[in-house]
Design goal:
Layout lengths: L9 H24 L5 H13 L13 H25 L3 H7 L3 H13 L5 H20 L6 H23 L5 H8 L4 H12 L1 H10 L2 H28 L2 H4 L6 H13 L5 H28 L1
């Protein structure tokens, strides 16, 4: 495991940005799927498709079952089950997509505690800039959020962070196989949540009413977001310090904003552009500072 203090190699950085683009634009895709399916039905189907049929061709990675179970439960039930439950009544999707980015701080904090990684002063400044950008978005969001909704999304963010830690502990494994086999443990609790919270009638009614666009959106959830996104994310976290990789997740709301503007016609007011600038400034500092420091040190 290479935990270099150097900046991310260009190809690794491009991979990280591609993951964020997929995760950010996903909120437009979710809108398509939720036209027929309940949020928890969508989450359940997402992980069913992740597990089948790839589990038939990809051998189970050589990690303990408890590690796979922990990752599946944390990402499947903990992150998505709790997040989608909050989005039923207690928080708007847009606000949820922002609050869940607190996973960046949870991931860095947990990593420092568990692995002894140290956060550099420039990374603190970068995080503060990016957080200021998120704060601008939160202050201008006209959606409502109950204390329960905010609390649930924070639990989802913590679950994502803990999932990051579990994936790193798995060591050097095929991350796609790891994500596929961990989905086995995400499906049962999500299906149970769907039946208990949404009710069998809503679950089966939604599945029967689903059209081609809905199933396309479900497939994108599984293939784009989970198989590509989480496998590649886990691969990056295994090779670089969490404090270097995790802040890139702050790009998710930026891509989400752009996709909503292009596809859904959401207006880009000056405050949104100001927030975009702050987030990008924070990321740019975090990514380019090691390069600049090395250059000036010569």
């Amino acid at each position: 495991m290479s935990h270099s203090r150097h900046a991310l190699p260009p190809l690794h950085l491009l991979l990280a940005i591609a993951i964020m683009a997929v995760w950010g634009t996903n909120f437009v895709v979710i809108k398509l799927a939720l036209a027929h399916l309940t949020p928890l039905t969508l989450a359940t189907l997402r992980f069913v498709i992740v597990f089948l049929p790839l589990a038939l061709v990809l051998p189970r990675p050589q990690v303990p079952w408890r590690n796979l179970a922990a990752y599946g439960l944390l990402i499947g039930a903990g992150q998505f089950g709790v997040l989608f439950t909050a989005m039923r009544h207690d928080i708007t999707p847009g606000l949820a997509s922002l609050v869940v980015q607190t996973q960046v701080f949870f991931t860095i904090g947990l990593s420092m505690r568990l692995t002894g990684e140290r956060i550099a002063p420039f990374q603190i400044v970068a995080l503060l800039l990016a957080t200021a950008g998120l704060a601008v978005i939160v202050l201008h969001t006209d959606g409502t959020a109950t204390p329960l909704g905010l609390g649930l999304v924070l639990v989802a963010a913590l679950s994502w962070s803990l999932g990051n830690m579990v994936a790193r502990k798995a060591g050097s494994v095929n991350m796609l196989a790891y994500v596929v086999w961990s989905a086995l443990f995400a499906v049962p609790p999500l299906a149970l949540f769907a039946l208990l919270l949404d009710g069998p009638a809503a679950v089966w009614g939604g599945i029967r009413a689903a059209d081609g666009w809905t199933w396309g959106a479900v497939a994108w959830q599984a293939v784009g977001n989970t198989m590509f996104g989480y496998a590649a994310w886990g691969w990056l976290l295994h090779r670089h310090p969490a404090a270097q990789v995790a802040p890139l997740a702050l790009l998710v709301p930026v891509f989400g904003l752009g996709a909503s503007a292009l596809v859904l016609g959401e207006p880009l007011q000056p405050w949104k552009l100001a927030a975009f600038t702050l987030v990008m400034a924070g990321l740019a500092l975090g990514i380019t500072w090691p390069h600049l420091r090395e250059r000036f040190a010569r």
